[in-house]
Structure formats: C-alpha cells, structure tokens
Write a structure and sequence with these properties.
Layout: E1 28-33, E2 36-44, E3 47-50, H1 51-56, H2 65-70, H3 77-82, H4 84-99, H5 111-114, E4 115-117, E5 121-124, E6 132-135, H6 139-149, E7 165-167, E8 173-175, E9 180-181, E10 184-187, E11 196-199, E12 203-204, E13 207-213, H7 225-231, E14 232-239, E15 242-243, H8 244-250, E16 264-266, E17 271-272, E18 280-282, E19 303-305, E20 308-314, H9 316-320, E21 326-332, H10 340-348, E22 359-361, H11 376-379, E23 387-388, E24 394-395, E25 403-411, E26 417-419, E27 423-428
Parallel strand pairs: 6-22, 8-16, 9-27
Antiparallel strand pairs: 1-2, 1-5, 2-3, 3-4, 6-7, 10-11, 12-15, 13-14, 13-22, 14-16, 14-17, 18-19, 20-21, 20-25, 23-24, 25-26, 25-27
Helix pairs in contact: 7-10
Manganese (II) ion (MN) is lined by residues 134, 206, 208, 240, 363-364.
C-alpha cells in the first residue's frame, strides 16, 4: 500500500495517539453535518474529509470524471460499482492529500470546510443496501446454538459443506447510535399451551462483521472465488439484533423472519479491505476430518481476517450511577469456518445477481471459550447461567435501556492497529400498543 509509511499532517493521527484511524486505514462513510446534507467522508484521526467539498475544490482532479462524480454522491453505491482499481486511485489520492507536508489541502483556503471534526458529523448507513444476507459461519456459534435446541444433533450434516445463510431485510438496517425498539411478536413460552402476542422477553445482540459488495454479477453468471475476493469492498461491525423467543417459535421450517427483521445496526465507518492486508490470514481454517471445500468454494489464495471483536454493555442503571460500559465478550474473526469470499461465491453460485451495496454478514462471531461467545443466548446458555453486571443486576437477555456497543481492531499495514468504526444501539421499550 503506497504512502502507508509516511505520516499525515493531521495531529490526531500521530502513532502515539492510538486511535487507529491513521493514514493506513482511511475508512469511508456517509454522514450529515450542520449546514450540509448527506455526503461521503473519509476519516483520518479525529477529522473527516468531506469528499464532496474536496472534489468541488478540485482536489481529486487527477481522477477520471466518472470516478470524481461518485465522490459527490450521498452513499457509496456508485463508487462501489467501479471496482478495485478505481478504489485504489481514490485512496492513493486521499493519502497524498493527507500526507504531503505542504500542498493543496493543508494550505487550502477552504480547509476548515473540507475537513470537519469527527464529533460534528452524524453517521448514516454507508450505502443504499438493496439486499442484506446473514450467514452462520462460526462453527462454535452453530455448535453452541445447536446443542441448546438439539442436544443429540447439534451440528446439522450440511453445515461443513454449505455456507448456511438467510435473506435478511435491507429496509430496517440502521446506523450506529439509532435506538432499537423491542419488537413484539408471537411466541410460545415453554409452559404455555397456546402461543401469545406481545413484547419479546429475550432480546439479544449478535456480534458480526458485515461485508459490502462492490461490482455485481449478471443474473445467471456465478462468481469464481477469485472474482468474489476482488469484489468485496470493505468491512464493518454489524449487530444482528435477535428476539430469541419469537425466533424459537417461528424458525421452523423456513428460518428466521420477524425475530430478526425489526432492526440491524451497522457501524458508520467502512474499513476498506485494502487496508487489511496485514490482517489477512490463509483460509479457510479446517481441522483433520473436516470435508475439503467443494471446488467452487476453494482458492489457494483465499483469506480470512485477524480482527479482534468485542461486545460492551451499559445498562440504564449503570448510566444513572455514572458507571462506564463493561466488556461482555471478546473474540476473533479468524475463528470463523467460512471466509468472506466463500460466502460471496456461494451466494452467487446458483446465479443470484449481487449488486453494488449489497451487504452480507458473517453470522455471530463466537470462539471456543465462554468469554468469546458473541450473543447473550450463548453467554447465558439460553438464560440458564445469568451474567452479573456491575450495577448489581443480572442479565439472561437484554433489558430496556441496555446499550450494546461492538468494537473491533486489526493489525494495520504501518505496524500499529486499526480501529473499526463502533456499532452501538440502545434498547427502547416495546410499542405501548403492544405492551
Ligand atoms: Mn445473525
């Protein structure tokens, strides 16, 4: 990655600041700020480069017109459609602008309007997400959940052969910081003879990574593993909120539906895959006795990602008492059985046309230890082992007022660590009419 070794002139990017948003990262997102409508920005340290203003100021004139126009869009889709060569040109030019010791941006008369403090912007969903698919790629998560619901047969016979997923809902994807209303729905408590309708009693988070698709494929035209790898633009933290009681009652025989489609939170900042070269690991990880992936899911150059991920929680009472959020769990994306390229190649393998801005998420990221379980269902073993919070209360599932924050970090190309953009959401009480 060119320019990664040089330093930016932005003070908050100095190596000792430890914020994880240096020149070797440059995540992109869609934001709004006072006096300016929704637009794209690239984060550097504690500042945001307004791509629309920068383009208008002629700072990207070295790019082709088609590429420049995508920088004036409010969402990422047009840029995503251009593919990896165009993405490299945008990021190479951005690094030039932010690293040149003296030059066009640093001395620009409108610099104060082209660069904004990050606390002055409000993040939106980064792309218009037409379709969202959620996979189930963690062996540990699938085995844990399977053992709760099917103790004799935890891992179904297809699981190590086919990346399991379900089609989620694009319309209810919300950006980090958006409150999440507890859903009401049909559930059937274990001791009840009839199902009932009302607020979910087992709200859960799911710690996941989501991948934004770049150029699409024509319908009927599958993607090879290497094509899939080239078309993954970037990664962001995703919370696939889940109502476990609704899920348990509705999921057979067609899979999750209303238990998951009421809200999915995504981070505001998308880390480009090109910034994760130092985090790439040979993939997929397999144990002795596991089936080899089928040819359409195999590539000698396939990769997984060494990304540390964490879940933090702060209850309403903790906020009231001035207590900081505490960590609920931490894991690593490298523990996943299916890689991002395998998920995308599989998605298109039957001829499904993927489109720029489609989102596919990994499924709950759980590791082999109890502390690395990525949802409450596993952490409390379906409520059998409640977790204590520092405010003196305990949790089987999430309560109203609980704020869940997902964090992540990965090795960067310049030797330090990159911070993934946070993904946070607070549970609000169910709609009064359904209470
Ligand atoms: Mn999920």
């Amino acid at each position: 990655m060119s320019g990664a070794a040089s330093e930016s002139w932005i003070p908050s990017t100095r190596a000792d600041s430890g914020r994880g948003f240096g020149l070797d990262h440059l995540p992109i997102g869609s934001f709004a700020a006072e006096g300016r409508g929704r637009r794209l920005g690239i984060r550097i340290g504690d500042e945001v480069l307004d791509l629309s203003r920068a383009e208008e100021a002629g700072l990207f004139s070295s790019l082709g017109e088609h590429e420049r126009m995508t920088l004036r869009e409010p969402v990422l889709n047009a840029l995503l459609a251009l593919g990896s060569h165009a993405w490299s040109r945008v990021w190479d030019r951005t690094r030039e602008l932010l690293s040149a010791p003296c030059g066009t941006l640093r001395e620009h008369p409108d610099r104060g309007s082209i660069m904004l403090p990050v606390w002055g912007v409000s993040m939106r969903v980064p792309a218009h997400i037409g379709d969202y698919t959620d996979f189930y790629a963690s062996l540990h998560h699938a085995t844990n959940v399977g053992s709760m619901f099917r103790p004799d047969n935890p891992l179904l016979p297809n699981w190590k052969h086919v990346p399991i997923g379900y089609h989620g809902r694009g319309s209810s994807i919300v950006p980090t910081g958006t409150p999440v209303r507890r859903p009401s729905g049909q559930r059937k408590p274990p001791d009840a003879t009839e199902p009932l309708f009302g607020p979910s009693q087992s709200m859960d988070h799911e710690l996941e990574l989501g991948f934004l698709v770049g150029p699409g494929n024509a319908q009927g035209q599958p993607l090879t593993m290497d094509e899939a790898s080239q078309r993954i633009f970037g990664v962001m933290l995703v919370n696939d909120w889940s109502a476990r009681d609704i899920q348990a009652w509705e999921y057979q025989p067609l899979g999750p539906f209303l238990a998951k489609n009421f809200a999915t939170s995504v981070a505001g900042w998308v880390t480009p895959i090109s910034a994760l070269n130092a985090a790439k690991r040979p993939g997929p990880p397999r144990s002795a006795g596991d089936p080899a992936p089928m040819p359409y899911l195999s590539s000698p150059s396939d990769w997984g990602l060494d990304i540390d991920v964490q879940v933090w929680i702060q209850s309403a009472l903790m906020r009231e008492k001035g207590m900081a959020a505490v960590q609920l769990s931490s894991g690593n994306y490298g523990d996943m059985f299916w890689t991002p390229s395998q998920m995308l190649a599989h998605h298109a393998s039957g001829g499904c046309n993927m489109q720029p801005g489609d989102l596919f998420a990994s499924g709950t990221i759980s590791g082999p230890t109890k502390g690395s379980r990525g949802c409450m269902l596993e952490l409390t073993w379906r409520g059998a082992e409640p977790m204590a919070l520092p405010d003196g209360t305990e949790r089987k599932f999430l309560l109203d007022g609980d704020e869940v924050t997902l964090r992540g970090s990965a090795p960067g190309c310049a030797g330090g660590r990159l911070s993934l953009g946070e993904c946070t959401g607070r549970i609000e009480p169910a709609c009064a009419a359904n209470g």
